[in-house]
């Protein structure tokens, strides 16, 4: 799929903590999608989603910690969108993308089957492709999709992030840079903007990732 044949094998070769950070950045960028879903559906889960993001950033910030990642993820799991709901919508689908990517970020550390970064990559790209395909009445070929600016931006974002993570050592400076990258100006992978009143959700990520002297 587009850049997958060459890209995904590289993701699989990354160590568990690198795969987790790769997925975490993509999940952080999806925060506006989940926030909009929670607001429109009037359901819970946003604070729990945010708690998981914050805790996993902290996990990567502190190499030696006693954070129970399984217990942390369990806090959010009950709020995962149910595909069997009668009113399952496109918004639910994007919220589910967020949940799947969050799980991948945690599973890279908890289980590490070696494909967590690929799962996150495919999920984020699928969301963009889903959006682009809505602009066409008929099925479109891969070349047409690849030429779309939104798809191109997603490819470039993921490749640049991979190159950054693959070459970096695990320290506070890397976490700081990745948090900023994931927040992405409060705009998601599909162009959804995080409501102004929710910008404060990211304050703790930023303070968590500040460089230490």
TrEMBL record:
InterPro entries tied to this protein: DUF416 (IPR007338), YP001051499.1-like_dom_sf (IPR023381)
One family name in Pfam for this protein: DUF416
Name of the protein in question: Protein of uncharacterized function (DUF416)
Organism: Anaerobiospirillum thomasii
């Amino acid at each position: 799929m587009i850049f997958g044949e060459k890209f995904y094998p590289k993701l699989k070769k990354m160590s568990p903590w690198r795969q987790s950070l790769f997925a975490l950045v993509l999940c952080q960028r999806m925060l506006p999608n989940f926030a909009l879903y929670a607001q429109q559906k009037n359901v819970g889960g946003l604070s729990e989603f945010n708690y998981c993001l914050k805790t996993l950033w902290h996990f990567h910030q502190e190499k030696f910690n006693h954070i129970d990642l399984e217990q942390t993820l369990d806090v959010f799991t009950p709020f995962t969108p149910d595909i069997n709901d009668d009113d399952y919508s496109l918004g639910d689908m994007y919220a589910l993308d967020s949940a799947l990517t969050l799980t991948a970020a945690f599973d890279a550390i908890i289980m590490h089957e070696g494909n967590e970064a690929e799962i996150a990559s495919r999920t984020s790209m699928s969301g963009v492709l889903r959006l682009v395909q809505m602009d066409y009445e008929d099925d479109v070929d891969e070349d047409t999709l690849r030429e779309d600016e939104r798809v191109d931006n997603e490819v470039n974002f993921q490749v640049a992030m991979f190159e950054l993570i693959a070459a970096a050592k695990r320290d506070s400076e890397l976490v700081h840079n990745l948090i900023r990258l994931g927040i992405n100006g409060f705009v998601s992978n599909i162009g959804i903007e995080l409501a102004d009143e929710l910008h404060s959700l990211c304050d703790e990520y930023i303070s968590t990732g500040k460089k230490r002297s």
